[in-house]
């Protein structure tokens, strides 16, 4: 009398001696077979006019296992800003996504917000319910690549260079995606030697 939850009614059977007698079954006092996981007292009663008898037992419906399908979004550039995730549980129950790397990416529902370049690590989980066991968590790691930049160098003074004469240069850095330019310093090299 052991079965596993499938969403369908679970019916017990009973045999009689002599065989073929008419019987009636009840499950925890109800004639309706149970669906949900749990333990149910089953009573089989002979209803044949010429015989009497009954037997009892326990029908156990075990929780079903479930799995999570989680699609890795692959490498994403920081300029995308957000990424929509695709995931599901075989049980149909809602899946929870959490970020293991909040400095790289954060999660709100199925939407990932990209914060900085690096490896974004996510975990999908489903805790189960009365009919399903908790799913084994699924991890997904994808790379967030840095924004591209373009650099423009301009000679400020003098307007045309003369050998041996100092030259003042300026550099402007812009994110190629039109985003805010990164901070920091631009390093110039002359003849393989660096100078600021």
Secondary-structure blueprint of this entry?
Layout: E1 2-4, E2 23-27, E3 38-46, E4 54-62, E5 68-71, E6 76-77, E7 82-84, E8 86-89, E9 96-99, E10 105-108, E11 111-114, E12 118-125, E13 138-145, E14 149-157, E15 168-175, E16 188-190, E17 193-195
Parallel strand pairs: 1-4, 6-13
Antiparallel strand pairs: 2-3, 3-4, 5-8, 7-11, 9-12, 10-11, 12-13, 14-15, 16-17
Question: What attributes does this structure have?
Answer:
single chain; 196 residues; four-stranded mixed sheet; 46% strand
Order of strands in the sheet with the most strands? 1-4-3-2
Radius of gyration: 35 Å
The secondary-structure class comes to mainly beta
Judging from the principal axes of the Cα atoms, what is the shape?
rod-shaped
Helix content: under 10%
Structure summary, number of beta strands:
17
The main sheet comes to: 4 strands, mixed
The average pLDDT value, as a whole number, equals 88
Q: List unreliable stretches of 5+ residues.
A: none
Calculate the terminal CA-CA distance, rounded to whole Å.
81 Å
SSE order, one letter for each helix or strand: EEEEEEEEEEEEEEEEE
Structure notes:
This protein has 196 residues and is mostly beta strands. It contains no helices and 17 strands. It has strands at 2-4, 23-27, 38-46, 54-62, 68-71, 76-77, 82-84, 86-89, 96-99, 105-108, 111-114, 118-125, 138-145, 149-157, 168-175, 188-190, 193-195. A four-stranded mixed beta sheet has the order 1-4-3-2, with no helix packed on it. β16 (188-190) and β17 form a beta hairpin. The chain is rod-shaped, with a radius of gyration of 35 Å. The termini are far apart.
